[in-house]
Design brief:
61% helix, binds arginine, two-stranded antiparallel sheet, mainly alpha, 4 strands, 462 residues
Amino acid sequence: MSDKPWGGRFKESTSLAVEAYTESISFDSALYAQDIAGSKAHARMLGRQGVISAEEADRLIEGLDQVKREIEEGSFPWKQELEDVHMNIETRLTQIVGEVGKKLHTGRSRNDQVCLDFRLFVSDQLREWIRLTRDLVRMFMRRAEENRAVLLPGCTHMQPAQPVSLAQHLLAYAWMLKRDAERMADCERRVRVSPLGAAALAGTTYALNPAMVAEELGMYGTFDNSMDAVADRDFALEALFCGSVCMGHLSRFCEEIIWWANPLFGYITLSDKHSTGSSIMPQKKNPDVAEIMRGKTGRAYGNLVNLMTIMKGIPLTYNRDLQEDKIPFIDTDKTVRHSLSLMADMLEGITFHPERMRKALAAGFLNATELADYLVTKGLPFREAHHVSGRAVAMAEDKGVGLEDLTLEELRSLSTLIDEDVYTALDYDTAVARRNVPGGTGPESVARQLEKMRRWLEEDGK
Ligand code: ARG
C-alpha cells in the first residue's frame, strides 16, 4: 500500500526515480508563505460557512501559524516523498493539530490550491518589481538632473548624429522604465484574482464562499469559470513578458555602458565596485556586471518562451505539465529583482566625463544639421542646404577640423548666404538649447520631463 496522501487506491509504492522526477518541493517551497496564507483564509471561510466548526477552524489556523514559524526557523522537515509544498505543509499540520488537520482540504483540490498560491506569489513579486523599477527611475532622474548641461553625441545607426544632453539620454531610460512599472501594475490586477473554489476542475458541492477568501487575501476578485481557473497560466505568461521587456530595456543600457566605458570612447568610468580586472592584462577594467546583465536577458526571454511552449498543447483542465510553470517564473523573478537593484547601484557609481563627450561632438560633425537648417532660414531649399552642409563636412574632414573651425571665407566659398552669425548656429549648446519642443532635448523640455516624472512618482506612488 502506498503511504502517500493520495495513496488509497495504490497497491505498490512509487519508484524512487519517479519520485525524484515528479517532485516539485525543490522549487515550490518558495511558495510556502502564500500556501499558508491561502490555507488560513480557506480554513476561516470553512468555519464561517459552517462546513467545519469555528473551533476547528481556529485550531487549523493556529497549526498553520506554527508550521510557518518552523519553516522560517529552519526546523521544518521538508520531505521529497511528500512531493510538493502543499502536501508537506498539510502533513506537518496534521501532525501538529491531529485529526482535524485532515479537514483542511475540504472543498479544495491541489489544482485550485496551487493556482492560488502561484497567483499570490506572482502578484507579490510583481509588487516588488514595481518598487525596484520606481527606485531605478529615481536614480535615472537624479543622474539626469546632475547632468543637464552635459552634451554628448546622440547616435543613430551607432553613428554620431546630433548633440543631445546627457539628461535627455538618461531620461529616455526613465520613460521606458516608467512604462515597465505601469505594465507590471496593470498585469498585477489580472494576476491577483482567486481561483479557490474551482476545486479539481468543476467546482464543489460544499457551501463555499470564494469571495470571502479573495477578500481576506487582498485579491481583486474571484474566478468566473472553474475550468478556466485551474487550467490557465496566462497570468504568469504576462508577468514573464513584463519581466522580459524590462530586462530588454536594462540590456540596452548595459550595451551603452559597455562602450561608453571603453577607453576609446572614455565617456564614463565605472566604479571599482562594479567592474572586475583581468587575470592576464593588468590594465583592464571590465564592465562585467553590465555584460552579465545583458546575458541574463537571454534567460528571461527563454523563460517566457519556456512557459509559452508548455502551455500550447495542454487540453483542459489541469495537467501535470503545469507544475513546470514555477521554474521559469522563479528564475525570471530573481533575475529581474537583482538586475533592477544592481543597475541602480551601478548607475549611481558612474563617473561621467563631459570633456570626452564634448570632444566627440566636434569629431563627429554633429552640427551639420544645424548648418543646413541655418541655410534654410536664409532662404535655401532644404535639399540644397543639405548638400552645401555635406560639402562643408567634406572640407572640414580634409582639413582635420570641426565645422565651427572653418573660416568665414571657406564657408562662403560653398554658399554666399553664409554670414558671421553662422557660428552661433554651429554652437553645440545653442543647437541643444533650441530644441525645446515637447519631448525635445532642450533644457526647458528636460525640465518639463523631470517635472512630469516627479508627479507620476508622487501620484502613482503608494
Ligand atoms: N505540485 C503540483 C503543481 O505544481 C500541485 C498540483 C498537483 N495536482 C495534481 N492533480 N496532481 O502543479
